Description:
CATH architecture of the domain at 107-258 and 327-442: 3-Layer(aba) Sandwich
Structural class: alpha/beta
Radius of gyration: 22 Å
Helix content: 25-40%
Order of helices and strands: HEEEEEHEEEHHEHEHEHHHHHEHEH
Number of strands: 13
Number of helices: 13
Strand content: 15-25%
CATH superfamily of the domain at 107-258 and 327-442: Alpha/Beta hydrolase fold, catalytic domain
CATH class of the domain at 107-258 and 327-442: Alpha Beta
Shape: globular
Distance between the termini: 31 Å
Amino acid sequence: MNDEPLSNAEVARQIHAALEPLRVVPIGEELPDEQPIGRLRRYPIRAADDVGILTLVDIDGVLIWEDGASSPAVPTARRGRGRAYPDGQIVTQLKYSKLLGSNQINEKLRQLDRRLTPLGPAELSEYDRTTWTGQTGAAPRKKGRILLFVHGTFSNCANMISELRGEDQSPYPGRVFLDKAAEHYDQILGYDHFTLSVTPLVNAVDLARRFAESEAELDIVCHSRGGLVVRWLCEQLDRMPGRRRRVVFVGCPLKGTSLADPQSLRNGLNLLTNVGKLLGSTIGLVPLLAAAGGLTQILSSAGAFIARTPAADAMVGLVPGLAAMSRIINNAELDSLNHGPPNSRTNYFAVVSNFQTEAAGWRFWKMFNLLKVADHTADYLVFNQHNDLVVDTESMTYHAFGDAPDVQRNADQFCYFDETKGVHHTVYFRNPLTVEFLTNSLLV
């Protein structure tokens, strides 16, 4: 992994830029239509009732979001600059207008969706197979062979194509796959869709409508949450039951993800913030700082960020796209999807990973997963089993492949990265073995 960590100053800058469309500003700036509340002094900030404060703190190298204002801002000799915090160092403080009701919350989610998926809320694009630029407003061909890309949470199809093309990396393993795909398929499409303000089922209903008049063979590459959209399409909603379909799930939460569990969502957003800082400019598939910062602000403005059960259940419910992926025993949407025998009409393949690392800079990772280094880290635990940073490994093969598939031995159906490979959720498409698996699964 060629990690290029960001400085705390750069983390703050990127978060400020990402959250500006949500009307969130650094503490020293004025909100739109804000009434002055007095000059800031060197004592705790007193915000008006309709203004919320969010603080990102660096605690011994680990970034943690806190709901509320800081302690007195005094220089600290330990870090040599910045402002002190009871348990660490302030990276940035943000203020925002508090939300009043569910309609405003949903609108904020749509704003964040629009920031992360500019072509949403639902758009089908056809890719030029020379330049790999997308043309919106596409319709599936009636006949022939179609390759469809479906992205995951916080992302978009342009990011998937960029990862395969290797535009910011060397070598470029995915370019060979794309070149072969350009010759193999009659049409190559990407489905861009909002992932927070709506559920995967809603996305799938829209996608099914678009393919309602097409009898073309359909191959799909889907990442993360996109796998749920695709399963709903293939197993329940496709109006062409005789269609030939092949699907490659890449790190998909077929049984949900612990990140969206009500008990661990807050810690999950802290985890994504730390990963976003560590990977820095090398991350392209999922803009984690923008996603984690935006979602943290929305939940905080709803008064739910520091909530505990049962309020935590309501917190996840405020975000339909996350609630549909919550790895809980009574998730109605997942239960419905996974009801009955596995689908036998579609050829499924999966790229699966168990990510573990002892690399420098990843100390924070042990705080959030099952490799705990001290008793207090249980307070930050997100995963209690193998995972790829975002999705539980077990979830990636759930139900669609039957009971307990042997992902380590069945190389025809699974591409398995064990803990020695260092492959996590944001780098699947950069790995030559993933590209080889896509080629062998689809281009035959």
